[in-house]
Amino acid sequence: MSTPIQFTVNGSRQSVDVPPMKRLLDVLREDLHLTGTKEGCGEGECGACAVLLNGELVNSCLVPALQANGSRLCTIEGVSAEGRLHPIQQCFLERGGAQCGICTPGMILATHYLLDKYPNPTLEQIQEGLAGNLCRCTGYMRIFESVQQAANTISP
Amino acid sequence: MSQSKPILGASPLRKEGRAKVLGAAKYIDDQSLPGMWYGATVRSSVARGIIRSITFAPEIDWEQFAIVRASDIPGENTIVHLTKDHPCLADGQVNHPEEPILLLAHPDKTALLSAVRGVRIEYDELPGVFTIEESEAAVENNDAERIIWPGSDAGGTANCFKQYLMYSGEANETEDGLAAAFEAADFIVEEEYHTGAQEQLYIENNGVIAECNKDALGNVSDVCVRGSMQCPYYVVHALTLIFNLPEEKCRVIQVETGGAFGGKEDFPSVIGSHAALLAMKCGHPVKITYDRAEDMAATTKRHPSRTRHRTAVSKDGKLLGGTIDVAIDGGAYATLSPVVLSRATIHSPGPYKWPHIRVRAKAMATNIPPHGAFRGFGAPQSLFALERHMDKIAKTVGLTPEEFRRRNFLGTGDCTATGQLLKEPVDMQHLLTRALKESGYHEKLARFAEENKHSMIKRGVGFASFMHGAGFTGSGERRLNSLVHLDVLEDGLPQILVSSTEFGQGTNTILCQVAAQALQLPYEDILIAQPDTSVVPNSGPTVASRTAMIVGKLVERASHQVLATLREHEGLPKEHTREQFIAAAQSYRAKHGSLRASVRYEPATKIFWDDELYRGDAYPGYAWAVYVAEVAVDLNTYMATVTRFDALQEVGLVMHPVLAKGQIEGGVAQGIGYALYEKCVWKEGRMMNNQMTNYIMPTSADLPPIHVHFEEVPSIHGPGGAKGIGELPMDGPAPAILNAIENATGVAFNTIPLLPEDIFERFTSFTEPAHGGSEDLDPTHLGEFLPEAVA
Prior knowledge:
The complex is a heterodimer of chains A (156) and B (791). Chain A has helices at residues 24-31, 87-95, 104-117, 123-129, 141-154; strands at 3-9, 12-18, 50-53, 56-59, 72-74. Chain A is an alpha+beta fold and 156 residues long. In chain A, a hairpin with a 2-residue loop joins β1 (3-9) and β2. The longest helix of chain A is centred in the last third of the chain and has 14 residues, at 104-117. In chain B, β9 (207-214) and β10 (220-227) form a beta hairpin. With 791 residues, chain B is an alpha+beta fold. In chain B, α5 (232-243) packs across α6 (268-282) and α9 runs parallel beside α19. Among the domains of chain B are: 17-25 and 482-600, 2-Layer Sandwich (Aldehyde Oxidoreductase, domain 4); 31-126 and 206-289, Aldehyde Oxidoreductase, domain 3 (Alpha-Beta Complex); 372-472 and 615-673 and 700-782, Aldehyde Oxidoreductase, domain 4 (2-Layer Sandwich). Chain B has a 7-stranded mixed beta sheet with strand order 3-5-1-12-9-10-11, with helices on both faces. A 6-stranded mixed beta sheet of chain B has the order 7-15-14-13-8-28, sandwiched between helices.
């Protein structure tokens, strides 16, 4: 049983016919082929599937499609503009914030959300702000540096 | 180019980094093939038993499914590693929970869930063994019912996959020396140490897509597996046996891999074989990706261990002799346990001079899913024991942990416990001095001792000194005989061809740096081919801290070979520009059609290793390190937290400072998890907490500042003087942290993981007469010399 769902994804209007309880994660990956959003745990622990829903950071594996109806979504594919890296992406690239890269899309969206809230975050705010995004490679130190550098770039 | 700054030692952008930050990198689950089906695995629900019947729920239309059983395997039903004891699919008997029995494929992924549940398997259960001790007891008691593994041609005996006996000299002389040492000792210090299983917890679960082609007669003609993996040629090897095909008919392609840490060293051979069998059966490409629960429950983990030390020491703090008994829990099949045990054995004496030492080591079988590779590969287990034991000896003798170690460190010109002469400079004394200084150790030691008197939060500092061998053990690199190609393409620019894989550590980047440096070309000009076994040669597995040092050296030599060719045939000057290189390369290609350099592994110096006696040059090179942990133990909550971490290591040339720091920090974070957070809860061989919700790895809020310091002493074994770095940072954190906790609380803990409930139990049971366990007798609690440390 499918339901029509409409939303704005990365600035463009989309409609899909999907079961209402289908995970937003799967709608993005399977129906819209936006595979930058990753699945790590499927239970809202790791944050690899994080996206911005009406500006709020959510784990898309916990959001039923129906709940996203009428919403404004931003995924990793919507962070860069015209092939140019967003400063957050640039800083993750330069500072070693991405290793294997599987947590990176979620981590970048979490950083986006964090810097909207705290343009010049303290280390503690960064640690708390990213605590819902697990990274097994970096030990987070390079990520903290990436976020600090991005903050300095965006809001000097 | 030759005038500009060296690229080796600089930090250019990660080769595949742009795709990763854009979310454009394609991991296996981001890919699909036309007509692709999905696969799932029906697993054992019991730990050990005979399969009595398999029935299929009548409400499911099984005609729609492809079903693979052991009898469908065209070749051998085995996942080959070192022996052939590990079946691809259980045939008649299961030996661990979650053992694969049947495979299912269907075009609709969602149909598989209910189908897996619709297969009902009944068993005649057999008794299992679930710990090292239970496995040993079965052997000692001649309990035939609990002999769960029969032995093997490769040196295995009942319930024991492998044993090693390593002496610091000729066996009889060492035994005599040990007897004399224990006779003459002022102190004999004994203790037992335990480490738990640890999940690799790469954020991307295991996954593959397989294709299978058949000839006119319907026989399998070739297979192709692409997926998340470390060692494409391991998977090739596995497929050749499963399908009875030659190597060139088994193609394996590594795609972007979302973390591995050893967890994708041996396991992809299993999931890769499964998907290929389903592809054979259904005639479509088949994707299998595990969800987190399946990945955690069914795939490999770090081997749990038990290590017993007995050490003879003089009153002036000299090691006179020691015996070390290491036992690891291998799980139900041998898989890589013999080699994990080998690294545990060789690392167990650490960076110290032992006049006489005997190490006995064994890998026991249990009815648990097979344990496998995980960063450090046995060394974190035996070094945890050693570095806790060193603190215990220091305390017993009455020296500081620092002074006791200083009196026993190996140095340049000394021989390791395997008799390896340390020709390259080793300066543990300096490393210790610098690590303690960088971390403010002495100042904190004094300050915390004072502050702790008035606080429920007890703070402390501790450290661990250790080394990690880079590359395969002993004759391993010679056996691997790794091959590397360097092609110059049509545009006159080079491409590296290796089977070494990128899974976050930086393989692509550092190998391109090596080639750029050697070829005097810009880093951006160097390409590296995707590891596809139909294209790249076998440069060995991406394991054992060997890529930078061993494969890097081969890339360097191949680059020099290309330059020599162009100088000889095209008159390329000794110092050249990019344009001169391209012109020379294109001119050469125009005449000869192609330009390829191929080089094979050759040791930089003569390496001698005796596999029988377990003596000689165990590793081409070692990284040396001292790690310092600062902790706070809250006696209100019994929570131990690391509040600062300093990691100092000598790793030869640091090829890429940003990546290298990232490697160390990531390893330290995993080590902190190993010590204080990550506990696998087992019940009858089954992991009960196979979720990220209840298996806790450190988050960004849990970790302290990690300060990374390097010393660079160039080694002849690696490109530009580099050595291996990947596994090293896993070894030091756990013992450093537990040493710091002892410093903070005065209580010695010798088991990891150490969770708040463990600390709570220990602290609240001191006054209970029934309180058991060897740790009761610990001197640091009783405040006097321990009974077993006799003057």
